[in-house]
């Protein structure tokens, strides 16, 4: 789908298994992802024809391009599910909104270096995001994002 491999069109993708096969933690962090990506692709198609975009449309385009970027993965570079949860949490909660698109890969690598092994283990074993895990993820993402932005500006 427009240069992204594998081609993914969330508006058309259908699966018999669906989210039933997903870990609860992944469902929790990616709940809005499909809708946001579908809206982004729809608006992006029309936005190329117009130059005056309202702030809500600009926000949607910025968020969608960052979500698309964070979903990219190198060939033969699998990522453990608990790391995926951390990265998608950061993306869907808006921590990437102020990160330049070319810097998202570096942000992702740095964030995964900062996350404690204990937090990753908690996500892996509990298979869900409790209130305390959510608070730890929020603290991690807020602190790391602030430092990352300061180091890149």
From TrEMBL:
Keywords, ordered alphabetically: ATP synthesis, ATP-binding, CF(1), Ion transport, Membrane, Nucleotide-binding, Transport
PROSITE patterns in alphabetical order: ATPASE_ALPHA_BETA
ATP synthase alpha subunit C-terminal domain sequence ranges: 22-142
Ion transport is among the record's keywords: yes
Keyword Lyase: no
Any GO molecular function: ATP binding
Recorded GO CC terms: proton-transporting ATP synthase complex
Superkingdom of this protein's organism: Eukaryota
Protein name in the entry: ATP synthase alpha subunit C-terminal domain-containing protein
Organism encoding this protein: Minchinia chitonis
Organism ancestry: Eukaryota, Sar, Rhizaria, Endomyxa, Ascetosporea
């Amino acid at each position: 789908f427009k240069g992204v491999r594998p081609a993914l069109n969330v508006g058309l993708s259908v699966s018999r298994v669906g989210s039933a096969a997903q870990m609860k933690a992944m469902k929790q962090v990616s709940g809005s992802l499909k809708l946001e990506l579908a809206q982004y692709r729809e608006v992006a198609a029309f936005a190329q024809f117009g130059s005056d975009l309202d702030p809500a449309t600009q926000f949607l385009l910025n968020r969608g391009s960052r979500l698309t970027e964070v979903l990219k993965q190198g060939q033969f570079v699998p990522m453990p599910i608990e790391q995926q949860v951390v990265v998608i949490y950061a993306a869907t909660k808006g921590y990437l909104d102020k990160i330049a698109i070319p810097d998202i890969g570096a942000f992702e690598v740095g964030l995964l270096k900062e996350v404690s092994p204990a937090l990753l283990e908690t996500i892996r074993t509990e298979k869900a995001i409790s209130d305390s895990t959510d608070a730890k993820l929020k603290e991690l993402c807020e602190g790391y994002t602030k430092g990352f932005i300061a180091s890149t500006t």
